[in-house]
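Quick start: what a row looks like.
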Amino acid sequence: MLTGLTLTQARAGLAARKFSARELAQAHLDAIGRLNTALNAYITVLPEQDVLASADAADARYAAGTAGLMDGLPIGVKDLFCTKGVRTTAASKMLENFVPPYESTVTANLLNAGAVFLGKTNLDEFAMGSANMSSAFGPTTNPWTRKGDESTVLVPGGSSGGSSAAVAAGLALAATGTDTGGSIRQPAAYCGIVGLKPTYGRCSRWGTIAFASSLDQAGPMTRSVADAGLMLEAMAGFDAKDSTSSNRPVPEFHKAVGKSVKGLRVGIPTEYRAPGLPADVVAMWEQGIAWLKAAGCEVVDVSLPHTRHGLTTYYIIAPAECSSNLARYDGIRFGLRKDAPTLDGVYEATRAAGFGQEVRNRILMGTYVLSAGYYDAYYLKAQKVRTLIKRDFEQAFENVDVLLTPTAPSAAFAQGENMDDPVQMYLNDIFTVPASMAGVPALSVPVGLNGVGLPLGLQVIGKHFDEETVLSIGGALEAAAGFTHKPSVHAGAGA
């Protein structure tokens, strides 16, 4: 089945002319046609003739021997990346009909590498959420179901839930995601795929619709660790248009996978052994530690004392930046406009109609912590704590090469569970947020199933700009786990 390949396998098959890029693209378009109504993984699917034209161009480059890194590989693009001439909504009514006249740097890099875009994947509105339930275009469904409870619909995680569901179900070989507090890693864990948040500054943010500018980072969502390295090579690179972009060479990341990890020191953060952590998550973590020991790693306990403040700090800083970034949606220059007799009325009517409840909540939280009477008490203090969190990681990395933790405190939960308790929802990000606050790279790798047959992921956190070591350790975990499980809904089912 062409829809069940990894990027690496598909690339090798195309190079050997075992199948064409057109056949590969058509297989994925057919799968989208069959399954997207049930999963709602894509908001916009590109016209078939455009997709096949891109695939034909890739076939011509393979025939000429000039194929690029991602040539002919069909991928999904999270609907947060501006794509020239293709509707880009951020899953919001505010941008329901927005068609950008320009291409984001990350998607331009992928197109230059030969990738074939299938469509724009669903997400939480403006990337705010951890369940993919706040999209103005309806929620995405996780293709996995609980054993013995197949009728209960599960969330795919968020915000990059459309991307994770599409990759898991065979509606794309890979997809782009963005990660602000865990929005690549947590949905990857919930859907049994690989998700990599690179170091902040590794991938350009230009042309990516902003949520929290000091945290947002684009990254790949794939079926294997080597694929994540391959795709990151195509996505990354310095961009003069983004002041936060780092001017560093882009290594051949995919070659890091398969390297010996013998002698590497793996830190286990004491603070991540949270009370109430489900037994199957703890067991999988211990299993991961055992696998790395067997691969020749040295495992040591480390302390990250300020990570206990990570979540509260994040939910001050991220909404504050969101409040500032989303002030541009005023009904004047682009996007939705609701007319009213006064200018203030236009602003109010436009924003009331355009933003969903979760976005409004975060704008209000952010506006509150930035207000004159509370700025010092909340925002300024949060920035100081963020510095301490970053320092904890730097000190830990003086003694270890990577950290190993669970990705999420549970497997995927059902639509409707925890929804009426925002604090409970925010706790889904408890293991992913600290790495985002520190700006370090982090990778989620699927390593097994829980008692009801749902995937669980382990997270590898590395030093700034050391994605290679993260990928090496992730590759060792992947090899030991041998995760080949498929969700209930996937393109190859019944084929």
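That is the whole record. The longest helix spans residues 375-396. The mean pLDDT is 96.
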